[in-house]
Amino acid sequence: MSKVRIEGMAGLRRALRRLPADVEHEGLAGLREAAEDVREDWYTSAAADTGAGREGIEVREDRRDAAVEVGIFDPGLYYMVFPEEGTKSQAAQPALAEAIARAQRRVAGTVARRISRRYR
Q: Which superkingdom heads the taxonomic lineage of this protein's source (predicted)?
C-alpha cells in the first residue's frame, strides 16, 4: 500500500505524552477527527468495483504511542494497492495520497482547536 511520511509526528507524540491526561486526550481526539476526515475523503474518491475495498478502510488508534492510523488492514483486500499505485496496464489513481495531502493542511489546526476548547 502507499506510504506517506508526515514529518514531526514523533515530536508530537513525545509532546502529547508530557502533557496532562486531559490535553493528551484532546490531542488524540483531534488526531482521530483528522483520521476520520482522511478515511471519509479516501472512501469517497477510492476506486470501487464491488465496494468491498472502500468498506475496508478503517481508523485505528494506539493510545500507547499516541498514534492514529488510517488504512486497509484486511489482507484479503490487498488488491486496493493496484488502483492507488497503478500497474503496467492501469494508471495510478492515488486517492489515499490525495486525501492525506488535503488533511495535512488541516491536522495541526484540528488538534489545536480541540486542545484550546478544553482550556477556555
A: Bacteria
The one-letter amino acid code at 120 reads R
Give the integer Cα–Cα distance in Å for 93 and 100.
14
Distance (Å, whole) CA 24 – CA 15: 9
For the stretch 93-98, contacts whose Cβ atoms lie closer than 8 Å and that sit 24 or more positions apart, written own/partner, are 93/47, 94/2, 95/42, 95/45, 95/46, 95/47, 96/1, 96/2, 96/4, 96/38, 96/42, 96/46, 96/70, 97/2, 97/4, 98/41, 98/45
Residue 33 in contact with residue 110, Cβ under 8 Å? yes
Angle, CA 42 vertex, CA 22 and CA 98 arms, to 5°: 95
pLDDT in tens, 66-113: 788 888 899 998 888 888 889 999 898 888 888 888 888 777 777 777
